[in-house]
Design goal:
Chains A, B, C, D: Catalyzes the NADPH-dependent reduction of N-acetyl-5-glutamyl phosphate to yield N-acetyl-L-glutamate 5-semialdehyde. The structure is a homotetramer of 354-residue chains. Chain A is an alpha/beta fold. Chain A is globular, with a radius of gyration of 20 Å. The first copy, chain A, starts with a strand and ends in a 15-residue tail after the last helix. Chains in contact: A-B, A-C, A-D, B-C, B-D, C-D.
Chain lengths: 354, 354, 354, 354
């Protein structure tokens, strides 16, 4: 593929699309192509993303397959259910573009899981865009799969946080996968930009509230799928996200039963081994715990792990920026791999804090 | 005891002391007695609690046993370790005051637990100030014990939230107590008013961060003690608190394995039965989840429960205001019982929201 | 009027209506009557106001004049434009109820001002519900007018903050009224509960943004009207509100030119004199500045004033809770006066902080 | 000067120093040299700046002139009063380094102003690091001065916001400089990283509070100095900053009397003309107002202006990130100029939002 590559973004006026744009503006081998939107088509970018000064006067066009044709890469930042049709239309038009879907449509392998959690027909499965995912069968990581991908399903933000937090324990067997409990503190941008009463600032400020409690959240089968890939025979997961008053960030606290006979040093070694060479996932020094603020704007996952001998459980905490490592940064990392570029190209490693 | 009762507060310039004051100012049978402080002694109340207009010109006096003598009730809102000496001095001086300790010193029954988690000699055990605590042995609740108490150990704020959230399941046996996992979203006022770098606003805003991870938090043995009182033979608890950017509030998400053969209706019935007549603890209608904002300023605990059949776990969420039901309101509720007053007297039931 | 008085609230599912409810639940001479809503009619109160535990199971009825009849007091907490028709229907039905309009419809005396700022026909003028307003002509305060009122126009929240901040200077002539500048930091609840994109938490958190800049805000003529009542011959006001990430509160910084020859002591004396006997408005000790947090939940206005000799200006800062002193508390204070009750009855003076 | 240039930072463990580091890590012609600290000397960078992953294992050294020698550039991010001695020691040691002082010591030209506002002897005046500052006398901007500077005084954050907001009106004479009023909404990072009770999150969350009211803020003479440079004969400024619950950002609302006979179009044209070619300062399209969130992490100033004919005043609002355009970004922009590099090199133009 000749450089620079041109990238079109569908759904560019939302938060995920805006973050893809922000990162691509700093990518040395990319030019920004068509930016499409639905109800905001025709508006200047600056009206909806006043932070994207470099594009203030560009305008959104309608989200149609036609507008997305002719680019090397197409990023879909659409509500779930909308990606399938666009992808099919691109295919039908003979597009050879690399397509990345930031939505959920193509993440799940199991159609039954899809139908149970999303209540609609399954659109099919694309290669999964989590380069750090451990593949137990092959002894490699998912990045090897992504090097030849032409379609990529970008993971859910919560899924990335929980998977990165716990997978070293699963892959090494130092924890059991059959009784995982994950509770997350989530920033509001994960809920998107649509105006809903429970998302307004007056409701959010000074409050914490759980949602999708009791095994109903759509990210559950996706986490389970990842952990099976990482080596678990069977996965059972209690998963509860919680909205807290911050715009960005996921702090995922995941606990698992400690495998009988395993000591703390072995646990720590598992995490160290798996993340020693990862450019974006870091085990913090002992005693230092992740803060979401430290990841804001960066494609970084900060991880810590501790053994609670009294409770017989391992506790791991993973902090990410839901819009970066959880969505747009993860997408670009996968894009880099699929395009044969350095995996880290254009991706910030340092957060914006405080 | 003649009315009104006079109440002295030791440590009145801190957050817990200030909240005791705020509530007592609305209590119809109380007059405010001595207000003591350490480094703020001599200052007007209005300088440290500008929200307490009714006391703006009162001044703090030194925290000495002498200044606390001559009152019907003494509330200790001191750092742990400081209560024992004051209580002993009051005792020695022949005080017949009801003493409530908002600190940790007298909560734990087991001296070994105390020493393991606090690292200092045990000061002894006082009657435990959680009126709603289920007592499996007697088939009553803790309020019966409190009616004759002259010394009361006010529970820890996190302890109240977790205990109220999960105890109906424990008491009825619909959940197992041997593998509990609790993760909490905590407002910053729980960390007190001392100036520490990790508590400054620049660090807190836009961030979530866990603390005391891995079985080290001092509230763990206290929760276990409560749940044993509620009927558990053995308790194992993984407990992780998380600071999120709000001033007040605890949202405690606690999960427990569902006892084999129990269905959702039975679970819900357990919670309904146990809280049907409680004035301050409320099971929300199905599908509505607690928000901490709804409890701000009120002595209210909002509870919800759901069964996650896929994970084989019950999830319960309890929201309280850490300074009210979690500290000052809980203290006054217990005080009312010990004084023979209506349990709810002077305690707000409606929160200040949004 | 016999006690308790029954109070109906139109628009009870919004923020202003909810706050009227919260305060009335603590009012010793009031029973809660009909609670009406528009799209939320039929819903339980607990669904929209989970903090109002005492009314969790009450249901909203449709907002019709019929539903509001038969009460001693009717509080209208409706969008502007909606109050006039309801008031007329109550009148036509022969209702003798005291009616308080929390909306803007009946605040302005000058129909031309109304039409210029609201763009619709003027609904007429009701007695103005700011008891502390200085009336230069009569040498009294507005509370005297309210004692015989049967219709009351509750002031705008920003108006209350700016008026209370600056009126002592105007009334005494120690500052000039011809070049006032007010800039406000405003919590989001002032914008109401309607879901709009610019009000969602993701947009609000970590951001400050002005609105209605350049002399367009509808509260401007109302402030001018008040300051003329307080003695200004002519008023010119630059007024800029700013949304900042808090749910409640207004911090109004107002500056005025110092009248030639006036010294600091004279300025301070003006504020002291005018607020010495006010139960809800307090000049803080020198050097202590108002915080909005100190007023949360209370019907309190905290005021401070300083002379900037270098700039030739007086700076005054007034903090209130926009939903209490700025709306619901102010309404109840006026209601008390009109009903012949103690002005302070049922109104909190102590804030909920931190 | 050969490239890359090595840059040492004194006071690198604070917020200003951390932000200089964050930006320099993205600067293509810079290598990071010595990082000094006072009480944090010896600690790894990752402990104090967990967001700066690229430097996690580097360690701070003591803040001594010796440690700062041997670099091409030295950035001083120290409390005011500390820079003078370091600068003198570097001079004495024969250092030819470019020195940028992020503190206040060398900003003011007038020693009397310094002594009046800072209460200590004046350390002297360095070239002022605000490239966009209009110089009325020469008809150029301050960037021309900076191209040959070897010492640079980085402006105060509030000063940058107010100056950029109002200077086009001053320079063109469309507003009067003799009665300016500026009120600012400020994020907490401007107050630094020191632990003080009034800065802790519990105090900050849900609150707005002014500080340094009444003409006492040390940035006042600096703003006046700038506006005189921009062409004002005499400047009078009322200046009130306000802490609001956000970590970063300044929203400066500044008003000035409209010069007699000037219309709105002329006002707008003044701002357009002066900022048309500025790479970092942008006049927004009419009707769109700056938000601080849009500038987070970027060296961007967003400006808007409106005429309030009723009040006879121009209102201008300027939003910046206090740590970027207000401190570290401004410093690097000036450094680029002094080194003969492109002025915009290494400086983000797009913010991190939401």
């Amino acid at each position: 593929m000749h450089m620079p590559v041109s990238v079109a973004i569908a759904g560019a006026s939302g938060y995920a699309g805006g973050e893809v744009l922000r990162l691509l503006l700093g990518h040395p081998e990319v030019t920004i192509g068509a930016l499409t939107a639905h109800k905001n088509a025709g508006d200047p970018v600056g009206l909806h993303h006043p932070h994207l000064r470099d594009l203030a006067e560009r305008r959104f066009v309608e989200t149609t397959a036609e507008n997305l044709l002719g680019h090397d890469v197409v990023v879909l930042a659409l509500p779930h259910g909308a990606s399938g049709a666009i992808a099919a239309a691109l295919e039908a038009a003979g597009s050879e573009a690399l397509v990345l879907d930031c939505g959920a449509d193509h993440r799940l392998v199991d159609a039954g899981d899809w139908e149970a959690f999303y209540g609609s027909p399954h659109a099919g499965t694309w290669p999964y865009g989590l380069p750090e995912l451990v593949l137990a069968d092959s002894g490699t990581r998912q990045r090897e799969v992504l090097r030849s991908a032409r379609r990529i399903a970008v993971p859910g933000c919560n899924v990335t946080a929980v998977t990165l937090g716990i997978q070293p324990g699963i892959a090494t067997g130092v924890v059991e996968a059959t009784d995982l409990v994950a509770v997350l503190a989530n920033g509001y941008s994960g809920a998107g930009k649509a105006a809903k009463t429970h998302l307004i600032a007056s409701e959010a400020l000074g409050s914490a509230v759980p949602y999708a409690v009791g095994g109903t959240h759509r990210h559950i089968p996706e986490i389970e799928q990842n952990l099976r890939a990482a080596g678990a025979e069977q996965v059972r997961l209690s998963f509860t996200p919680t909205l807290v008053p911050m715009a960005r960030g996921i702090l995922a606290t995941t606990t698992a039963r400690l495998t009988e006979g395993i000591d703390s040093a072995t646990v720590r070694a598992a995490w160290q081994t798996y993340y020693a060479d990862e450019p974006f996932v870091h085990l913090l020094p002992e005693g230092q715990w992740p803060t979401t603020a430290a990841t804001v704007g960066a494609n970084t996952a900060l991880v810590q792990v501790a053994v609670d001998a009294r409770a017989g459980r391992v506790v791991t905490v993973c902090a990410i920026d839901n819009l970066v490592k959880g969505t747009a940064g993860g997408a670009i990392q996968s894009m880099n791999l699929a395009l044969g570029l350095p995996e880290t190209m254009g991706l910030p490693t340092n957060g914006v804090a405080p």
